[in-house]
């Protein structure tokens, strides 16, 4: 059901974008790009274009707002508020209770290597030396 509502929301978004871009501005907007005012005049009539497009934009904006609200309330988190802590917070709590939080994290090192003190870590020669 969420997937169907999401698809409807995307279609409403596309319709809203098109209805906004089709409205004529001082430079005729996107309506002028499709052959000038003759095309919009032939399709919608003289002032009919502004009235139809403004009503379509208003309808699409209301539909967009309502579909946003419906999707938020039907989302798995229940309106965006989650009573569960995030994964990062859970991991920090787990490490704090176990006492295994390393002071610094070494990329690519195993947890045993990260817990060793610098004196205990094996020394590797710099590249180019000792070969």
Write the layout of secondary structure elements.
Layout: H1 2-22, H2 29-33, H3 37-44, H4 48-74, H5 87-98, H6 111-115
Helix pairs in contact: 1-4, 3-4
What does this molecule look like?
- The protein is mainly α and 131 residues long.
- It has a domain at 2-74.
- It is 60% helix and 0% strand.
- It is built from six helices and no strands.
- Helix 1 runs antiparallel to helix 4.
- It is elongated and about 75 Å long.
- The termini are far apart.
Brief write-up:
60% of the residues lie in helices and 0% in strands. The protein is an all-alpha fold and 131 residues long. The chain is elongated, with a radius of gyration of 30 Å.
- Helix-strand category: mainly alpha
Oligomer kind: single chain
Q: What integer is the average pLDDT?
A: 73
Q: How large is the share of residues in beta strands?
A: under 5%
Distance between the termini: 64 Å
Main pleated sheet: none
List keywords for this structure.
single chain, 131 residues, mainly alpha, 60% helix
């Amino acid at each position: 059901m969420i997937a169907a509502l999401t698809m409807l929301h995307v279609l409403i978004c596309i319709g809203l974008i098109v209805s906004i871009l089709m409205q004529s501005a001082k430079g005729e907007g996107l309506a002028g790009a499709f052959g000038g005012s003759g095309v919009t005049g032939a399709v919608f009539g003289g002032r009919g274009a502004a009235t139809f497009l403004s009503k379509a934009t208003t309808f699409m904006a209301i539909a967009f707002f309502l579909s946003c609200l419906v999707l938020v309330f039907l989302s798995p988190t229940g309106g965006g508020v989650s009573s569960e802590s995030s994964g990062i917070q859970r991991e920090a709590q787990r490490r704090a209770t176990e006492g295994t939080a390393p002071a610094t994290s070494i990329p690519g090192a195993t947890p045993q290597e990260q817990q060793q003190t610098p004196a205990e870590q094996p020394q590797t020669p710099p590249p180019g030396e000792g070969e």
